[in-house]
Design goal:
May play a role in DNA repair. It seems to be involved in an RecBC-independent recombinational process of DNA repair. It may act with RecF and RecO. The chain has 199 residues and is of the alpha/beta class. The protein has 8 helices and 7 strands. Zinc ion binds next to helix 4.
Length: 199
C-alpha cells in the first residue's frame, strides 16, 4: 500500500480492463515520473472523451455528433447492415475496405455466464431500423467465439421471418478470437465469402 493519492491512482488504474495490480503500479510510477505536460494532456483527453464522445443515435457506434461518420455518409449503401459487438469491430471492418453498407453496434454479445441477455444489447433498436423496408441484407459479424455464435444464432432466428437476407461471415476467421484481431486480408475474405443463413 502506498500513501493516499498514489494508492488511489493505482486503484483506479487497476479497475481498467486488462490492467492487473502489477501493471497498475507500473503505469502509476510512469505517470509520477513523466513530464507534467504529458500527464496534463492525458488528463485533458480523458475528460474530453467523456464530454464530447457519445453513441450514434442510429447505429450505436462512437460518435462526436448525434450520428456517427458512417451514418452521416450519403455514399454508404443503406440496404445492408453489418451487425457487430463493439465499435472497435467497426474500425476493424472499415480497415478492410470490403464493406460499403452501414453498421449496427450491439454493445456486447449474449453471455449467460456474465448475465448478458438479448435485452441488454441493442437488438430492439436493430429491429426498428429494419422496419422501414429499406434494408435487404443483415450481415452478422459477431465474434467467432461461443458468445458471438450464440448471438448470431439468436439474431438469425429473430430476423429470418422478416424476409431479409441474413448472412454470417465466412469461416477462416480464427475461432475463439475477437474480430478485431483478425488481419485485414482474412477479415476481407470472410466478408466477400459470407454465407446465407436464410435456409
Ligand atoms: Zn452510426
Amino acid at each position: 500500500m502506498y500513501e493516499g493519492v498514489v494508492q488511489d491512482l493505482i486503484d483506479e488504474l487497476g479497475r481498467l480492463p486488462g490492467v492487473g495490480p502489477k501493471s497498475a503500479q507500473r503505469i502509476a510510477f510512469h505517470l509520477l515520473q513523466a513530464d507534467p505536460a504529458d500527464v496534463q494532456r492525458l488528463a485533458h483527453v480523458l475528460t474530453e472523451v467523456k464530454t464530447r464522445v457519445r453513441f450514434c443515435e442510429v447505429c450505436g457506434n462512437v460518435a462526436e455528433e448525434a450520428r456517427c461518420r458512417v451514418c452521416r455518409d450519403p455514399r454508404r449503401d443503406v440496404s445492408v447492415i453489418c451487425v457487430v459487438e463493439e465499435s472497435k469491430d467497426v474500425v476493424a471492418i472499415e480497415r478492410t475496405r470490403e464493406f460499403r453498407g452501414r453498421y449496427h453496434v450491439l454493445g456486447g454479445a449474449i453471455s449467460p455466464m456474465e448475465g448478458v441477455g438479448p435485452d441488454d444489447l441493442r437488438m430492439r433498436e436493430l429491429l426498428s431500423r429494419l422496419s422501414d423496408g429499406e434494408v435487404q441484407e443483415v450481415i452478422l459479424a459477431t465474434d467467432p467465439n461461443l458468445e458471438g455464435e450464440a448471438t448470431a444464432t439468436y439474431l438469425a432466428r429473430l430476423l429470418r421471418p422478416m424476409g431479409l437476407r441474413v448472412t454470417r461471415l465466412a469461416s477462416g476467421l480464427p475461432v475463439g478470437g475477437d474480430l478485431e484481431y483478425a488481419d485485414e486480408v482474412t477479415l476481407g475474405r470472410a466478408f466477400a465469402g459470407r454465407r446465407s443463413l436464410d435456409a
